[in-house]
Amino acid sequence: MLSNGNDKPYGYYGFRFYKDAIGEFANIWNVGWEIRTSTDYDWNGRTREESGAYIFQYTLNGEGRIEYGGKAHSLKAGDAFIVKVPGDHRYFFPETSETWEFMFLTLVGEKAEACWDYLIQEIGHIAKIPPDAAMIQLLRKMNHEAAEGLIQDGYVASARAYEFIMESYRYAKNLENRQVLLPEPIVNAQLFMQSYFSEPITLEDISEHVNLSRYYFIQQFRKYTGATPKQHLVKIRMEKAIELLSHTDLSIKDIAKQVGYEHPNYFSKAFRKSVGESAGRFRENIRQVPLNRVVID
């Protein structure tokens, strides 16, 4: 039985930096990561008290629903919606759903409004976005930063707001160059691995989650992503391990456990194969010559 994951910063974080004029053009109003299981969750854009708010919400698991323009749309893993408040929309937890897990971001400011107008024009109010898209990874990072108290003033909040806006523009502008949209089971598998990489999950766990046979799942995953599920999972784990080696003093044994390896020896072999050097040597080198990012392929 899988847990909810120790690294998920569940919560609803609000930011009100009234005196920071630099944030008037774009700033964070709310950011959060939630699991909903009740129909009490129901937001109507026509009756909300907020004004001048720009919401981006991304489904990680389960199912939600949004009504826009007189039509109802199901929201499943990998689905994002983009709305402005006030606005002619309603998003809610439907009676037919068992759970709905999602991340969201609410921005304020004229630059946010311009970005939302562009996104709605280019990709629509509802869009399927891969979980490895930079804007989704940034939203994950912002939630972790909010949970850890790292967004402490209007300057940091505004910087993150601008960063998300720029990643959104970049995604929308490159949309026509992206590969064909991934099938829902592949997106669900990627999200599952992102959520549970810290646990000793197996191919059977992942294929069962997406309701495909092990063999067919591996075949389809490779067809659409160019990598096997195992390669994708190892990449996620190694990227997290690099982050922990670079920014914490955790022992290699503890890092191995945090990225899903019960035995440090297996972690060490996987790390050397992926990065080209041992975890210990990597940590020594990174402290001598700090890198902002290490890309693994």
From TrEMBL:
One Pfam short name: AraC_binding
Residue intervals of the HTH araC/xylS-type domain: 187-285
Domain of life of the native organism: Bacteria
SMART domains: HTH_ARAC (SM00342)
Cross-referenced InterPro entries: AraC-bd, Homeodomain-like_sf, HTH-like, HTH_AraC, Tscrpt_reg_AraC-type_HTH
Record GO terms (molecular function): DNA-binding transcription factor activity; sequence-specific DNA binding
Record's keyword annotation contains DNA-binding: yes
Keywords linked to the UniProt accession: DNA-binding, Transcription, Transcription regulation
Presence of the UniProt keyword DNA-binding in the record: yes
PROSITE patterns: HTH_ARAC_FAMILY_2
Name under which the protein is recorded: AraC-like DNA-binding protein
Organism whose genome encodes this protein: Scopulibacillus darangshiensis
